[in-house]
Amino acid sequence: MDHAGLAELVKRALAEDVGPGDITSLACVGADVQARAILVTRQAGVLSGMAVAREVFRQVSPAISVHELKSEGEAFEAGERLAEMSGPARDLLTAERVALNFLQRLCGVATLTRRYVETVAGTSARIVDTRKTTPGLRMWEKAAVRAGGGGNHRFGLYDGILIKDNHLRAAGGLTAAVQAARAAGHHLLKIEVEIDSLDQLEEALAAGAEAILLDNMTPEQMREAVQRVAGSALLEASGGLSLERVKEVASTGVDLISVGKLTHSAPAVDLSLEFEA
């Protein structure tokens, strides 16, 4: 993980929330008051993001101690304790909301991913994410996908070639785009092409694409694509794949199922930081 990037991310989040100071805590709580707190769940889920939360507490006050009770990727039930904190009460109160915001978001991504992964269990398909992430949080949201049991697609535009419909139009067609990408890329770089009809499948194979993204195709079309390709290229299904549909898609024999919802629409997990008497 990028520790410098994490520190800057948390610094910006704290500046946004705390600004020049937490006026409520400063007014109501004495500087010498110490407190113990627990991070408790209000619903079942999968843990991700404690590294970010720890950095929040560290930046607010090095005097805060954090003891984790669950590990990254571990499932939890409603009412369970995820961590215990102790330190200056003012500082715990100041850090609370920012730490929870990160945790609730990242646990939400991990939890939704786990549901997709469990839904396709028993098939050969693997659930992967997309680039449809929250700006500034991509590294951590993709880590949350892994915590949920999913896999990562390319991290950005720089580490994988994925030729989409607009590339095809701008490049003058599928074969021309693949040939240009092959000429520009090194020998270890795979080329993936997005297609939205079976008519494009043979051209993609003939052009030498190592992976083919089947965009918004029906399960019947996907099964036919799997039969035609017969293992000669990686097949990825994509396009609005809900939990209700994903098992049927996985049963077609595709290798990957990319789900943008994992990171752009995952509901937050309800967590709470509670002071102990």
Task: Give descriptors for this structure.
277 residues; elongated; alpha/beta; four-stranded antiparallel sheet; six-stranded parallel sheet
- Radius of gyration, in angstroms, nearest whole number: 23 Å
Q: Strand share of the residues? A: 15-25%
How many individual β-strands? 12
CA(first)-CA(last) distance:
36 Å
Average residue-wise pLDDT: 97
Query: Which spans of ≥5 residues are poorly predicted at pLDDT below 50?
Result: none
Helix content: 40-55%
The number of helices is 11
Helix-and-strand structural type: alpha/beta
The largest sheet is: 6 strands, parallel
What does this 3D model show about the protein?
- This protein is an alpha/beta fold and 277 residues long.
- The chain has helices spanning 3-18, 23-28, 50-60, 89-119, 138-147, 165-171, 174-184, 201-207, 219-229, 243-250, 261-264; strands at 34-41, 45-46, 65-68, 75-76, 81-88, 126-128, 161-163, 191-195, 211-215, 234-238, 256-258, 271-276.
- The strands form three sheets. A six-stranded parallel beta sheet has the order 6-11-10-9-8-7. It has a four-stranded antiparallel beta sheet with strand order 3-5-1-12, with helices on one face.
- Strand 10, helix 10 (243-250) and strand 11 (256-258) form a beta-alpha-beta unit.
Give a brief description:
The chain is of the alpha/beta class. 44% of the residues lie in helices and 19% in strands. It is elongated and about 70 Å long.
